[in-house]
Every structure is written in C-alpha cells, then in structure tokens.
Amino acid sequence: MKKTREEKILTFLFILPSVVLIAVFVYGFIGWTGWVSLTNWKDVVPDFTFVGFRNYTDLFQNLRFQISFKNILVFTVLFLVASIAVGLLLAILLDRKVRFENVFRSIYLFPMAISFIVTGVVWRWMLNPGTAITGSLGINMLLDEIGLGFLKSGWYTDPNVGIKAVVIPAVWQMSGYVMAMYLAGIRSIPQELSEAAQVDGASNWQVYRYIILPLLQPITLGAVIILTHISLKIFDLVVAMTGAGVGFSCDVPALFMYDTTFRGNFFAQGAAIATILLIFVAMLIIPYLRHGLKGGS
Amino acid sequence: MKCFKVLSLVLSVLLVLALGSVAFSQEKGKIEIFSWWTAGGEAEGLQALFDIYSSLYPDVEIINATVAGGAGTNAKAVLKTRMLGGDPPDTFQVHAGKELIDTWVKTGFMEPLTDLFHSEGWVEVMPEGILDIVSYEGDYWSVPVNIHRANVLWYNKQIFADNGFAAPQTFDEFFEIADKLQEQGIIPFVLGTKDGWEAAHIFETVLIAKLGAEGYNGLWTGETKWSDPGVTEALETFKKMVTYLNPDHAAFTWDEAYEYIIDGQGAMSIMGDWVAGYFFSKEYTDFGWAPVPETAGVFDALSDSFGLPKGSKNRDNVINFLKVLGSKEGQEAFNLKKGSIPARTDINKDLFDDYQKSVMEDWEKDVIVPSVMHGAAAAEGWVTEFKDVIALFVARPDVEVTQRALVQVAERAGVAQ
Amino acid sequence: MIFFAVFYLLPVYVLLATSFKSFAEVSLKDMWKLPQDISLDSFQIAWRGDASKGVTGLSKNFINSIYLVIPATIISSLLGSMNGYVFSKWKFRFSNLVLALIIFGMFIPYQSVLIPIVVVLQKIGLYGSIPGLIFIHCVYGVPITTLIFRNYYSTVPTELLEAAKIDGGGFLRIYRDIMLPISMPGFAVVMIWQFTSIWNDFLFGLVVAQKPSIQPITVALNNLAGSYFVEWNIQMAGALITALPPLLLYIFLGRYFMRGLLAGSLSGT
To answer: Closest Cα partner for B217 from B378, B34, B56?
Structure first.
C-alpha cells in the first residue's frame, strides 16, 4: 500500500515502544553482558577493568563448566530423540481415527500448560529412589510391585544417571507439543496421496514410511530447533527437581551461570557463560529465522 | 464493533484492577527477617527469638523470609540479587567474618552498629575473638547470636558401647573402627551430600587435622601453599573416608542422613553442632561427641549474625530486633534450641545441655580457627569454588586433579601460590 | 496409546493421591495408594500456611501472581497487536529485518540479560516490585505476541484494507474498525499463551521479586518444596494450586492454547 506522510509517521509510532524496549532490553543488555564478560567484575561492586578473554579461558579449564556442558549435550540429545520419537508415535496413533481422540490428545498435551517448577517438584517425588531407611519409593516402589524391580535406579541421586533422569520429566512435558506439531502436519497432507498409495497395494507401514514421513521433514526440523533451544536454556526444571546434583551430575550451564554469578560473586564469569549460551542459541536460531521469515514474506 | 467495545471494557476493568493492586506495598509496623533456618532445631531457635520479640513489640508483624537449602547457599544468592537491586530485607542472617566483611561491609552495603554495641554493653560481655570478626575499621557491623563448632565427630553411643569402642583420636583409629563396623553391616560413616556443601565441611576439618591450626589458617593468607603435602594427605584421608559412607548419601540433606544414627543403622558422622539442635528437636539423647580425630584442642568456629543493611525500611524495628538478639534472654532461648553456644559469656550455663557445656569449656581453652565453609575464613567467591571442587571430589576422587584445582581456586581468589 | 496415557497421567495421580491424604494417612509406604478419606488438610496448610511448621502459605503468592499476570498479559498483547498490524500490513524498508530482530528476543537465554536487569531495574526504582516484574514480562513478551499477531493479521486479505482506504480510512481507522474487531481469536490465543507463560515463569521472579510480600507463586512453591521438613502432601497440594490456573485455561480454552503452541513453533509461515 502507498503511504502518506502521516501514515508513515504512525507506522513508526506504532512500533516505536516495542522497538525501543527490544533494542535496549534485548540487544543493549546482551551487549552489556558481553562487555561484562570481558571485565574483572568478581565482587558485589562492579569492577569494569578490562581483562580480555581471561574469563573465557578460565572457564574452559573449569571442571564444573566442562561437566555442565557435557551434561547439556547428553540431555539435549536424549531429550530430542525421545521427544520426537514419542511425539511422532503419538501423532501417528492419534491419526488413525481412534475413539476418544480428543480425550487422548488432551491428556498428551496438558503437561505443556504446567510450570517446569510444578513438573520438577512432582517428578522429584516420583523419582525419589528411597533409601535404606525408607525402602524403595516412588517409581522404584511401583517397579517392585509390578515385578520389574530390576529396572530400579537411583535416578537423579546416582551420579551415573544424573541429568538423564531429568530427561524423563522433560519428555513428559514437551512430547505432547511435538505430537501437536506432527498431527497438524499429518492432517495437512492431502488424503488422496495415501489413498492412492493404498490402492496401489501399499501397506499402512509403507504409506507412513514412504509418503508421510518424508513430507513431515520440515516439521521435524522445526521441532528439533525449538526443542534444542529449550533444552540449551533449561533451568527451572533442574532447579526444582535436582539442583546441581551429586558431583554436578545434574548441572547445566544456565544453573552454573546463576550460581557463579549470584552465589560466588563471579559476575564476569557468569556473563561469560551467558554469552557462550547465547552464541549457541544464536547459531541455531538465526538460520531458522532467516529461512522462516523469507518463506513468509 | 460491539465485540471491540466489550473487549476494551474488559481490558480497562482488568487494567484498573491491576494498577489499583500495585500500590499496596505500604509497610508499617513490619519487620522482614531473612535467614536460611528451616531445619529442625534452627527453625525452632528462630521461632524462640520471634516469640521474645513479639512479646516486647506485639504490634510489629514479623515476616519470616526463609530461603531453604544448602547451608544458606540458595539464600545467599537471593540475598545478593535483592541487595544489588536495592531491595534489601530489613535484616538478614550472615556469617560473621569474611562473608560479612568482604561481601557486605567493605562494599558499603551495611550500617555500622557500634553505638548499639556500646549502649547495650555487648563490648563487655562478648569475647574478643567474636568481636574481632564482626568489626572492620573500628566499627562493629553485625550482632552475633551464637558460636558453632564445626569440627565435631558425632557417634551413636549405644553402638560404641556394644563394641567397646572409644571415640577415635586419630584417623588410623577412625578407619579401624570403621572396618569393624562395616563387617557388622553397620554404616560406619554417615553423611548427606544433597546440598553440595557437606563434603567441603568435612574436608575442612580434615585439613585442620593434617595441617594443624596454624597451617590451616595459613591456607587462607598464603602462608601455607595449597600444593603442600599436608593438603595431599588430607585429600588421601578424605578419599578413604568417603569409601565408608552410606551409598545413598546423595539422596539426603545433612539432617535427613542423621536418621541413620538415630535409628542405630549408622555409627559416626562429622558435622557442626547444629546436629545437637537437630538431635534435641528429635528428642534423641543417646549421642556421643568428640573433636574430629587429630583436631583436639582446636575449635573450628563460625558465628551466625544479623546486620542492618542500608536502606532497611523498618530501621527502628530492626534495632529492636538486634537488641533482642544480643540480649541474655534472646541468646539463651535461641541457643538452647539451636545447639550452639551463646556469643555472650555472661549467660546461665546451667540451662544448657551437657554437650553445650563442654563446648563452652573448649571455647575458653582451645585454639580458635575460622571455618571456611561457613563464611568466616575466606571471601564468598573462594568458598563457593572450594565447595564445588570438593563436591566434585566425592564423585571423582582424583587427588592430583583436585589438588591442582584447589591451587587454581586459591590463585583466582588472589592468594599467590 | 493407553500406555502413554498412563505415563502422562501418572504424575497427576500422584499429585491427587498424595495431596488429598490426611496427615494421619501420609506414609511413604503408601504413596501409591488412594486416600481412604478425602482430606483437605494439606491444601489448607499449603494455602494458608502453618506457623508451627514454619510453612508460609501460598495464598499471598497466588494473588501476587494474579496481579502480575493480568496487566502483563494485557499490555504485552496490545503491543503485539500493534506491531503485528504494522509488520503484516504496513511493511517498510527493512521491516522484515526489524521483525526478525524482535522475534529473536524470544529465543535468547535470559541468563544473558539477567545481570543488567537487576542493575537497571534498581536504577529506575522498579526492582523488587510487582510493577517491575510486570514491566520485564511485557518487554520479553513482545517478541512472541508480535509474531503471533503478525501471522494472524497476515491471513486478513489486503484487499479489505485497500477497500477501506479508498473509503477514506486511514492507518488508525483501519486498525480500530477493521483489524481490532476481527482480532478476538487472535487476542484469545495470545493472551492465553502469555497468561500461561508468565504464570509459569520462574527465572524472572527468582531474580527480580524475592521479597515475600511480592514473590510470585512459582518461586514460593520452589522454596516451599525446598524446605526439608515440609511433608510431601503439602508440597503436592502446593504444586496442584500452582498448576491450577493454567490447567483450567487449558481445559476450557484448549483449542486456543493449541493454536498458540503451533504459532510459536512455525515462525513466519
């Protein structure tokens, strides 16, 4: 549309508040954090002496940092694979025109509406392994009762399991979301396509394998990006459920950042962790945004 | 159009509601007291203080702002954001020593309390060692409410009596007893490590055992190097101790783990004397105590205190609360529950438990060293990293790597190695 | 499918079974058993608190969260609607770039703005207050509300606007008379999304609003659950109270919730 001068000004005024807020509170703050990460600020009073990349080199030697990064990688991979597998499976099952589809769909999706804190509190209780005093508790107790006692585990209290135990509630909370994405995707595929294949004698499995799944690839990509960025940022769930865990087996960078900044007073180091996290997220999101917005315009 | 009108009506009503609600934070006749005392014994001690305060100032509403977990590590993070944000609690719990002075006093967040110390006569009744660690540049900055001893070995008396054991004086004896207990299926060494600081607490006492009081003090000033063979020995000893732990230690906080001792399933443990307060609250009396092996004659001390931050909104109420804290009555009531001993020396000793009486005696004759895990010996940043390194050591007991990390941590804290 | 339904409902079962038990019945051994009698004791304590147990009730925090959520939701939705209108119908040079820069704000790890938030809010006197927290949620809510509205308004045929222009409608008239009236479903989606995510937020509350009198409910719940001697039934009752408002929204307005979810994922399509 052609714009008059007045309209141009109004256009500008309409987005001005948001643009200013985002410029300051997103980009200004990110820049400020980036600057802090290059300073010597390690007390409650700021110290803006420039120290170059020392905080970063210190971090790479820091054992806790190494562990928390390894943890987040393990967490992300398991969380991605499990959420996508479960989400896709549920979508396919639901697509088969089952009775009570609505009920099932609602059940799979409701955890999305809940705070990670609630999820963490509830699952901490359920995955509480119990002790020699109390005997098995939670899931372990249930496993005992149904004769699957060999599956018992120390869950998040076992340093060898650690962060992997946090994957369970994370999948519980997010796989319904993946299901919703896939279901919308499957439903948007023209029926004729699979019907034609079936006429040609393709089995149900073949229809999914050769027709539907390939068409769902863009959705998988979207899901991978959304889930990965949620996973990299995970904080609430870990705080509420486990904390850093024994030997930092449940530690994640976002938690380490909070700890080192506000408990340890290492503001500059905290800023460096935040900046590293941001770079990872940006590498993931920027191509996605470029692609998505180009496609839309 | 109609739709729009309804929507805008609803929106404006909600907006008015919301904005109206925003102006409610007028605080009169309140006092917000910030601490991390939520476990048995300590929560009751705090309540005892509140009771006295309320009887004196019945119109003041007490807001008990506790943040649970981690010997105060969670609370300290919360406190920091609030102080930086310019929204301090009216008064807050802080460990006397470096934590108080380095984090809050030197940086200008606190008001001095020197006048109060003189007018209430605390300078006469509190021992010099305690007054020292709450003062900076000639002023007093917080009111100490207690003295805790950190290097205590706790044991189940019944188990020791059944086996004819005496409290171990050396770590060799400790391991000997531990081996015998293990054969009987009793957990030799009980601990909960859920909050991440407990291991560092124990390691601190082992450091004192292996380096002596002077050597230990030197660690925090640079006179003792962290590469010292004594530190290696402490790590080796601690590594061996960990092998006698209850395997489910990660599932417990310190107090939960003590169920093993109360229950007779576990025999020994090392912890500060808040354990006494916990035992009192559980009405368990069959516990024995001794200094941590090889630390007899040394008193690893910490003190909880409360200060007055600048910008406290209820200053007068805080001053009154601090008076209660420092009073004879307040210190007695609090410490009877908490398991620690009062910071004042003029209290009625007869009120206290045998354990506390013995601590009072030791306090007078022992060499006092400041606890590091509990904020007295080193600045907070150092403590945090020290704690992390030792917590990691429990899961991955590599002496060499850990010692190197301890050296690095000290260097980062500005103490040349 | 039933298996998964059981997996998804298991925590709900535990929540309900534990929180409705009376104190007499709470025993670790029976955690999977249904309560014999329905008891509301745990809810009473979780809601009102119990000084003798040192438990502070969540009622105050629940109300704090409501005071927080309502204005933050409304303001961020309005901003989003204004932005969406411009970015879908009044594009300018680089408008897609500006849009992308705004949307990027919803993906950032908030850790990277945490330190400045504390410092700047202190400077402008908003730290440690509900208005301060509202402000923060408005700012960081703008990206998602803008995205959803932009996508929503993109579906409005441009011909409609052009016709209105020929009739003499200007920028504001079109927004008020054409866009807003058809925005109800858009507002429903955005507001439900914002309500849910602000209610469920933890990090901003943790860092900005820790004073007991203004703590939002998620922060209070985490603290309640962290206290060693708070019984599980109280924790579960607290968790249920915290989860209830967004769950009710989900149950009654689930289809808008779904749309919000999908809008958040399929950016720009």
So the answer is: B378
Whether residue A244 contacts residue B193, with contact meaning beta carbons closer than 8 Å, is answered with no
pLDDT at B27: 38
Verify whether the Cβ–Cβ distance A233 to C267 is below 8 Å.
no
Residue B406 is part of which domain span? 149-301+372-412
Among the ranges given (A219-233, B172-186, B325-339, C246-260), the one the predictor scored with the smallest mean pLDDT: C246-260
In whole angstroms, give the CA distance from residue A146 to residue C32. 12
Handedness of CA A50, A51, A57, A59 (dihedral sign): negative
How far, in Å, are B90, B159, B277, B278 from residue B281 at the CA level? Answer: 28, 21, 6, 5
Q: In this structure, are A150 and A292 located in the same domain?
A: no
Q: Which one of B4, B24, B282 would you mutate to disrupt binding with C, by most C Cβ within 10 Å of its Cβ?
A: B4
Same domain, C223 and C209: no
Residue span of the structural domain in which A76 resides: 66-265
Q: What's the domain count of chain A?
A: 2
**pLDDT in the model for residue B17:** 47
Query: Structural domain of residue C7, as residue ranges?
Result: 2-58+218-247
Of A14, A29, A124, the CB nearest to C86: A14
Six-digit token pair at B341?
A: 């001993």
Q: Does B54 touch chain C (CB under 8 A)?
A: no
Q: Are both C112 and C166 inside the same structural domain?
A: yes
Q: What is the mean pLDDT of the segment spanning A145-166?
A: 86
The C-alpha atoms of residue C148 and residue C266 are separated, in whole angstroms, by: 10
Cβ–Cβ of C112/A33 closer than 8 Å?
yes
Residues of C in contact with B255 (CB under 8 A): 228
* Distances in whole angstroms, Cα of residue C170 to Cα of each of B1, B159, C163, C182: 17, 89, 11, 17
Identify the burial level of B265 via C-beta atoms within 10 angstroms of its C-beta, where 0-12 means exposed, 13-18 middle and 19 or more buried: middle
CA atoms within 13 A of residue B212's CA, in its CB half-sphere: 5
Residue A118: name the closest of A172, A59, A185, A164 by CA.
A172
The enclosing domain of B252 has a CATH number of 3.40.190.10
- Determine contact: C199 vs chain A, CB below 8 A: yes
Instruction: Tell if the CB–CB gap between C142 and A21 is shorter than 8 Å.
Output: yes
Is pLDDT of B54 > 50? yes
Phi, psi of B301, rounded to the nearest 5 degrees: -115, 150
Contacts of C1 in chain A (CB under 8 A): 90, 93-94, 98, 104
> pLDDT-derived band of residue A1, with 50, 70 and 90 as boundaries?
low
CB neighbour class for A143 (10 Å; exposed up to 12, middle 13-18, buried from 19):
middle
Q: Which residue from A44, A243, A247 is facing B392, i.e. has the nearest CB?
A: A247
Please report, for the domain that includes residue A203, its CATH number. 1.10.3720.10
Nearest in space to B122 (alpha carbons), one of B324, B312, B368: B324
Element holding B55 (H helix, E strand):
helix B42-56
Instruction: Tell which phi-psi region holds residue A138, choosing left (phi > 0), alpha (psi between -120 and 50) or beta.
Output: left
The stretches of B224-374 forming alpha helices (DSSP H) are 229-242, 254-257, 259-262, 274-281, 315-326, 328-338, 354-365
Residue appearing with tokens 């315009």: A297
- Taking CA A219 as the corner, what is the angle to CA A213 and CA A221, rounded to the nearest 5 degrees? 105
The answer as to whether B348 is a domain residue is yes
- Average pLDDT of B327-349? 93
The helix/strand/coil state of B302 is: strand
**Hey, is the C-beta of A276 within 8 angstroms of any chain B C-beta?**
no
pLDDT band per the 50, 70, 90 thresholds, residue B230 = very high
CA distance A289 to C147: 11
Interface contact flag, A121 C107, Cβ < 8 Å? no
Q: Indicate whether B83 and B222 sit together in one domain.
A: no
**Lowest mean pLDDT segment, chosen from A60-74, A76-90, C158-172:** C158-172
* Binary contact (C92, A86; C-beta < 8 A): no
User: Sign of the C-alpha dihedral, residues B69, B71, B75, B77?
Assistant: negative
